[in-house]
Amino acid sequence: MLLTVLSGLIFSCLIVPFGKILKTKWSIILPIVPFLLFAFFAAQIPLVSSGNSLYQHIDWVSSLGINFDFKLDGLSLLFSLLITGIGTAIFVYALSYLKGHRYFDRFFGYLLLFMSAMLGVVLSDNILLLFIFWELTSISSFFLIGFNNDNADSRKSAITALTITGLGGFFLLAALILLGNISGTFIISELVQSKEVILNHPLYPLLILFIFIGAFTKSAQFPFHFWLPGAMKAPTPVSAYLHSATMVKAGIYLLARFTPILGDSELWHYSLMIVGGITMLYASIHSLFRIDLKSILAYSTIAALGILTFLIGVGTQEAMVAVAVFILAHALYKAVLFLVTGIIDHETGTRDITVLRGLGRVLLPVTIASIIAAASSAGLPFVTFGFIGKDLIYEATLHYPNMEWIWILTGIAIVTNVGIVAAGLMAGVKPFLGKLPQQFEKIHLPPFSMWLPPLLLSALSIVFGLLPWWAGNYLTGSAANAIHGSSFPQENLAIWHGPNLVFLLSIVTLVLGVIVYLVNKPSLSKLQAVEKLNNISPQSIITGCANSFLRLSDWITGLSHNGYLRSYHLKIILFAEGLLAYKLWKSGPIVLDFDQLTRPDLYEIAVVLVLLGALFIVVSTASRLTAVVSMSVIGYCTCLIFVFYSAPDLAMTQFTIDTLSTVLFVLVLYRLPSFINFASKKILYRDAAVSIGFGLILSLVALRVWSEPIAKDISDFYGENAYILAKGKNVVNVILVDFRGIDTMFETVVLSIAALGVYSLIRLRLKPTEKE
Amino acid sequence: MELILIILLGLLYAAGVYLILRRSMVKLLLGIMLLGSGTNILIFLLGGIVKGKPPVIDEDAKLFQDIFADPIPQSLILTAIVISFALTAFAIVLLKRVYALVNSDDLDDLNTPEEEDI
Prior knowledge:
Chain A has 772 residues and is an all-alpha fold. In chain A, 72% of the residues lie in helices and 2% in strands.
């Protein structure tokens, strides 16, 4: 299974060197990759439908618990077949759709990457591995949404989608790590055994909150739904593949996958039911006001995802069967509707349903596919798979254990389904009916590789609709088992359950949907009226938050990084003062032993006074030369202090160095202008206060350290061994050239480097152009 | 004397900090040098100061007969003085270079226009 996941990645990489070849007629080999994968997964159907699972374990980073653990059970298989099956159709379709596009090869690279990532998500049995693939789907989706990268809208949508799904991914990672820490394992099939521990853990509510945020952002649940309509800026094959059939269902997959582990609490059920319910109602009503084909489909996709979340929340066995069936049914018809939209867009250049009419005459095979898909989405009884799905949804809500809730749940389901029916008719039927406008008369049928995939997929809707037990036996039955976490006796899917309440509701939904479709005339003015509400929509709130966050960081950056060195110095020094003062204050009072003090002689005090005078001149003078000379006075005075207090070596070094510095200074800088005072009085006072504060704190630190006894062990060691071990009588010299000889050697290296720098800077001649 | 040195090093630090808060590049360099001498005196003081007892063993002895000044701070300071000279020398030449290029001693003249826009 590792190979199935990696094959897409490998081919995706191969596109980099061989992209040019693939732009020619060799492009035909591209759909073979998903097709072979599809064949592989199809071959596993008998094994999995008999209740077995396929496992694979390859060590990767075992010390962190991240390994290639793969598991193919009913749920994974259903998703894998959708990913590779619909993937094959999309690949074939995209060959013609993007024919001659500048980034043809790049597109398939992204698409293959995405397919691998998605297979990885559904096959991983290790939650950390799952997370890696989860993020990969977000990233590949980002590239695909922003595929038309010369379009500002499309870039913006890509960033929105990445931000939202990335945010969700972050929460998901937190949740998964929490889950692993609570249960002690990262393997999903082992997590089930720790179910009780996890459910009773105090962090359980936080855990599922994080999981929910991860799943809801990915599956476009309210209030994170808004990235999905934006993602429709992607080329249509991408919308069909990622944003209706596969990626957005990753969140649903996640919830379904964790249902056996986490899904046994009221919190889980009610939150999912409420969020799913809001999403499905909100989106299905919204879809009726859209005039762009893709927008209609986007909102009805959100509604469908809402239904799936809702059903997982309902959580009964029947609901699980409904989830499995509805995933399949929805993927089949929604992909077709998107592909048809792509053809219409490709041929007519518009997706506005108020303009599109009468295309049935010119695009006959497309029309057939589209009408079948719309019928399936409407749940036309007896022939379409959508009908079975709709049936099961009603069964699930009607058989909800809590009697008082039944009618609320069923009511929500009816309203949503009516909306989905109407949206399906608007998108799938309306453009083909009526009289063909003149401007579209020259339209001709696209190449068969574009109309065949939607036709085949819609044919599957009919096949499964006529033979539902076939789908139930081989696909959805074992998937439902996997979601529920145990095998349970299932009544097999059937077309006809007799004229019961469920059937009645299906008919009522269909009729109401058709009425809504006939009555509702979407128009630009209505859309604009609805869009006025956008100011209070979650999208604008979240964008507003993001924008104010950007402004905040901009403000902080402007405040702290204004590009003036002295302001950085000021901040660093103030911070250091704060830290040192705090530490001094915490370390308690300073106790001084006045007996230890050495008595100063008069000449010493005189030297210190000279030094202070020179210091004052350095700070206050306006002449550069005076400042430099005063600097050397300070140096010589320090030198004298070293002489008085038993440091002849220091005095000699300081004397030499000071003389050298002064000479260098004067030689090099004598031409510079004198100092100009830029700062105002106020700033000068502020800086003076800061500096005096710093000096004071440093003096106190010195006092503090001086008042503590010092350990003399090392000094004594050097003193005793200077002659015995190193045959030297000047201890300072011995330390420098013997005991710490290597340090001194590196010091010499530093000096040489500085000397090289000085030399090359002096030698470097300016070109006349470089002079300002 | 210790107390005087403590006040002295505080003043050296204060003057150094004051100078590095100025706009002039030369003052910045002088400030850094002052901070260096302040630190030297700080280290020197913390080793404990003794008068007239350099850490040199007498001609005819193999060991110290008397107390002696702590050699470790002295070797540290010696290193520090030399390294700070390397820094100063390089900085002085760099300053000259900058002056030749932009004809100014003002640090703000080094800011690129983009940075000022932020």
